[in-house]
Amino acid sequence: MRITLVGSRHFGVTTLNMLREHSVAVVRVVVADAEDRLAATARAAGIEVVVQANPKLVVASEIAPDTDLIITAHSHARIGKDALASAKFGGIGYHPSLLPRHRGKAAVEWTIKEGDPIAGGTIYHLADRMDAGAIAAQDWCFVKKGETARELWERALAPLGLKLLADVIDYIKVHKALPAKVQDEQFATSAPSLS
């Protein structure tokens, strides 16, 4: 399976490492910033790095030829329709909430702010609307009393994301398709900016 990884920072790096350990070919890494640690890690591993022309949008020309699946890992860029159409299975991303709850940025912070006793993560199909595509995999965890968003992310949600991504990759290898369950819009919440 040929993967184009779009991402940044620590979660981008840990996702890249997980994919390489999972025996899939990461053929290109797409980043918004050439100096990002994901770009440096990819270059050190001999993986082609492309810097997005527009930091808010990834276009088809930035996706590696013959890509089977686009994966986003800590990317705030929208993956354009043309880019998704260029990959055999389209694209998936990880969102650190139980979608459709807490769509948008700052999902972990909103989990804490709302006092949710349960948090979770979702692998979802990339679509026109941010965080609104079909669910490919989902799991949950408890939130510890007094836990900060960063503590929850590091303790449970980041590792959960890597596990769910690996599960979806295994599913694709066996079934040659992506699992998909439509999100129930009646439960959708949108996380406004915390700034």
UniProtKB/TrEMBL annotation:
GO terms for molecular function: methionyl-tRNA formyltransferase activity. Pfam families: Formyl_trans_N. It comes from the Bacteria. Residues 40-157 form the Formyl transferase N-terminal domain. GO terms for cellular component: cytosol. SUPFAM superfamilies: Formyltransferase (SSF53328). This is Methionyl-tRNA formyltransferase. It comes from Bradyrhizobium vignae.
